[in-house]
Amino acid sequence: MPITLYEAVLGAKVRVPTLDGAVELSIPKNTTSGRTFRLKGKGLPKAKGATGELFVTVRIALPDGSDAELEALCRNGAASTRTIRAGLSESAQSALANGVLKPICSA
Fold first, then answer.
1. Residue 31's domain spans which residues?
2. Would 107 be classed as within a structural domain?
3. pTM of the prediction?
4. Radius of gyration of the chain (CA)
5. DSSP-derived pairing of the beta strands 36-39 and 12-16
């Protein structure tokens, strides 16, 4: 389920399509891309009239084109990416430095 960076950082309620119609899913503040939420009773029908679970994985989607406000925010917060990467192996840090892996926001 695509969500905006703003929804991921600030938290939001988003509408999620299900077999029985759309429902609201509360996205907590500071949700990371790839987080999976479980919606009980919103999945495929099971035997004996029960209903399964629906799993919703969020993906942070950036806006098309440039967004000056987002770029400024990323420039101002670039220092915080160093602490996020502190636990990475040397090979992962090297891949980031050489452009093999790319962060969403870079200075």
1. 1-62
2. no
3. 0.68
4. 18
5. unpaired
